[in-house]
Specification:
alpha/beta; 6-stranded mixed beta sheet; 5-stranded mixed beta sheet; 21 strands
Length: 579
Amino acid sequence: MRKTDDGTVMGWIAGVDGCKAGWIAAFAELSGTEAPFLRVIPRWDDLLAGPLVPELIAVDMPIGLPDRISGSGRGPEQAVRALLGERQSSVFSIPSRSAVHAADYAEACRLALETSEPPRKVSKQGFHLFPRIREIDALLRAEPDWCTRIYETHPELAFATMRGAPLLHPKKIKSVVNPAGMAERRALLLAAGLPEAIVHARPPRGARADDALDALAALVVARHIAGGRGRPFPDPPGRDSQGLPIAIWTYVADRSLVQDTAMTEKPVPRSMIEAAADRIAGHARTTPVMRLGTGAFGSRADVSLKLESLQHAGSFKTRGAFNNLLSLDVPAAGVAAASGGNHGAAVAYAAGKRGVKATIFVPEISPAAKIEAIRRFGAEVRIGGAQYDDAQAACDKFVAETGALKIHPFSAKETIAGQGTLGREWHKQEPDLDTVLVAVGGGGLISGIAAWFAGSSVKVVGVEPEGSRALQAALEAKAPVTVTVASVAADSLGARNVGQLVYDVCKDAVDHVALVPDAAITEAQALLWRDFRLAVEPGGAAALGALIAGSYKPQPGERLGVLVCGANVDLTKLVEITA
């Protein structure tokens, strides 16, 4: 093996994770002439002073510490959570530099509270990581040249990249290793090209089996970074006050190495939607189209309404729920979901029809009518906190503890493909449409419809409330971002972040997003009841609201399809706005 003057062994890379005995490193030689191996190393300095010094290292440990923290952590942490399907796996929120360098736990909590907005203490689990964070931080501050050779990664992000979607099984349940989760990760490592001998190797003394798999996942990322396929979040990386990079790295998948059949040139291709349509046939209704002709609602367009509000359980979400249940293995613990109402009702309905246990977590803001629908369909309802994010966190905890299958409302290919069957059905009913208006919450619906119409002459326009614009913000920023939410339609169109998968589908397939004021949404609800006796919730009326308000201005004679997508309205409120 050739060495440079500073002792680096040319061609060797490493993936590193923390473990009980210090660090576990997975070494590989890029040419493949020597077999990769695992080694436990007590201190970080020992990794760089040993007989084999890697040319490039990917490590599961934070690099770059801000002086203050806003929101739920550093920017990379917030972006990566969206990629993992709303925290199917944990991404710790690292506090400020002063808190990480505190002498004891009480001091760390005090400093963290002073340097975070909203104020946030330090978890005991996070505090135990601080000595390892300080090891890398000290090296990079003393020898900044290492910043071009040491990269922060996250194993669960690496695994999600390998799969092309969030993982199906948690790594642990009640702090005990989950065999199904370990098997899923081993299969992904094998598909990524690692030898079976190291994937199934007994971990070295001082490390656990899950530590070894995490180090191997980091090794896969290191290999891609070395090959020029690394992908940082954010891009380009930020910098802390010491000049250290702040980014979590994964990679752009190399399809010669990743054998995931779900990964194609398009995140959700038409073939996946076709398969979903075959799968859910007989389970979801074919909903009607109401053709209104030219001049409807005072517009110059030739307007028709697609009445998906007449779907089972009152919304389009039944399609995605059935596609998940019919395409994924359901464990004995059943399925779980977090929902403002419609997704929960759909999962409850589909689970009931399939004889599967369902546990649905809803926030306190969910309308009583939607909660009652979930219970009526046979699911257990749990109030998961004040807002949707609180319900999602409670759902994630339940999944980790029980092993239940989480059915995500938008950040899953199975969900998007299921919703895409609506676009397929609509296209068959109205083959001559020029444009479709589609309401956007988390983005699963518009992703599926846009994936179906991609490459056709049909223009897909998203509609979001002015006070809830996660997709428009993502398209403007060219990446998923977190927004604040305040709208009459927040219970169904109130996602704070669309996530990476939705963004990847929509960035090239959605023409643009029109923003609609709450007053127009309420007016559309009243109009649909007055003229057509259609009881529609705010989110279901949003697309029509964009036409009424002029947020979308069609051309004369434009063949415009407007999606009416949800009927789970609180009837007392409907009476108020139609009185």
